[in-house]
Specification:
This is DinB family protein. It comes from Nocardioides cremeus. InterPro entries: DinB/YfiT-like, MST-like. The structure is a single chain. This protein has 175 residues and is mainly alpha-helical. It is 58% helix and 0% strand. It contains six helices and no strands.
Amino acid sequence: MSRTPLPDIPFVADEVSAVRSFLAYFRATLRRQVEDLDAEQLDRTLAPSPMTLGGMVSHLAFVEDYWCRHVLHGDQPAEPWRSIDWATDPDQDWHRAAGQSADELLALHETAVRAADEAVDRALAAGGLDTLAVVDRHGEAPSLRWILLHMVEEYARHAGHADLIRESIDGTTGL
């Protein structure tokens, strides 16, 4: 069983490198939690939550697109997010994963990560971490610094969920 390697997080680094290292670490952690699972396993929940590992991968792909492309630059959502009827199901980013394979979900996530990294690179080149998003959230434009720290927080929180769900599926711990 080949596992996605966990990148090193430097103890001493500039702010951008430090934050991006933590984000890369948690992205890899998520990938490791779903590797080698089939669609049925990816759809399993751990009571009392309706969360699944497959839904988590889909959700985090959406989060990458939403914060790093849409909020930061005002880009239109990428597919499949653009075509979703969010009014019918506001949690479609989670629910759309049902029945999908790990390969399908990880490909979606990988595409979203690449696009998010490109969007972050553009913002860093334009103004660094103090670059303000073009789409307000709650009446205020977040900075790129805030967005990146929020992404780390989002992944870290879900990495804990993923640990518990994965252990309930096959007993695997310490990924």
